[in-house]
Write a structure and sequence with these properties.
The chain is an alpha/beta fold. The chain has 8 helices and 15 strands.
Length: 314
């Protein structure tokens, strides 16, 4: 049985939803849910609420959506709750010191890496891109820095051989929710000693842009697959074929020897598209031509004809 403090929950995207749900299931007194304002999304630019807002409304929780959390009105609204703790899970705005210092138990953040590794906004993606064998989740006490606060609890997670950013995101969201509940229970009971991060061991996970998905076929096959998996589903690894952008999903590094130039198609069959890399080759299982939906290679080949020795990336 958990004993959780009264709290304000601040979060926005799908990653934060398991944490909010876990707090509700554990009986946490949630005084207020703070999330980003509704935004237009998609081709139709339809105004959409955040995943956190949708769950909060479903559960009858009060929701507050300030345009700027640093504004005097937002600071006043949050202070008025007199919560024992503030929980922040992928909220999307930097919090001012006056908010961080309000609650007696501090502001607790869930971060999807084993801090101090991969500080920043895209820790899941970069752990995969850089070929890490393990990652995890960290709860920490927030301070004015970017993911520099004292560590509360950590939980490791092994990265599976063909894991994507999407599947790892979902696993760490659930694991982070469990660690968060445990963290708050221990904090309230006074049984948790924060420990400072070793900043000399820090690495960074900067925000991603669409162009980060461009595949360099001169890299070795393993590096290329790490990038494709690390950017699946967004922004997506891509190359160019016949002057059009071609997204790449589902890949395996092949330890084969080929004299073909990097980026050259060396086989096109139902099991995938084999492309020469700087070392070895890459087997791509799903393709998405710009403006079209993703297709397994076996379906893609019915309408598009790759020739052996076609060159990708040009």
């Amino acid at each position: 049985m958990y004993d959780l403090p009264s709290l304000i929950f601040m979060g926005t995207p799908g990653f934060a939803v398991p944490s909010l749900r876990a707090l509700l299931d554990a009986g946490a007194p949630i005084l207020l849910v703070v999330t980003q304002p509704d935004r237009p999304r998609g081709r139709g630019r339809r105004v959409v609420s955040s995943p956190v807002k949708k769950l909060a409304q479903e559960k009858g929780l009060p929701v507050y959506q300030p345009e700027k959390v640093r504004s005097p009105e937002a600071v006043e609204r949050i202070a008025a709750q007199e919560s024992a703790c503030i929980v922040v899970v992928a909220y999307g705005q930097l919090l001012p010191a006056e908010i961080l210092e309000m609650p007696p138990l501090g502001a607790v953040n869930v971060h999807a890496s084993l801090l101090p590794k991969y500080r920043g906004s895209a820790p899941i993606h970069w752990a995969l891109i850089r070929g890490e064998m393990e990652t995890g989740v960290t709860t920490m006490l927030m301070d004015a820095g970017m993911d520099t606060g004292d560590i509360l609890l950590q939980r490791k997670a092994v990265i599976q051989p063909e894991e994507t950013a999407g599947s790892l995101h979902d696993r760490l969201a659930e694991e982070g929710a469990r660690v968060l509940v445990e963290t708050l229970d221990l904090l309230k009971r006074g049984n948790l000693e924060p420990r400072a991060q070793d900043s000399s061991r820090a690495t960074y996970a900067p925000m991603l842009a669409k162009e980060d998905g461009k595949v360099d076929w001169h890299e070795d096959a393993k590096q290329i697959c790490c990038r494709i998996r690390g950017l699946d589903p967004w922004p997506g690894g891509f190359t160019y074929w016949q002057g059009k952008r071609l997204k790449l999903f589902g890949c395996r590094a092949l330890s084969i020897s080929t004299e073909a130039e990097p980026g050259t198609v060396i086989a096109a069959a139902d099991n995938g598209l084999q492309v020469a890399a700087g070392e070895g080759a890459v087997l791509i299982e799903t393709l998405q031509l710009e403006g079209r939906r993703p297709l397994a290679v076996t379906d893609f080949l019915r309408g598009h004809h790759f020739q052996v020795e076609d060159k990708l990336g040009e």
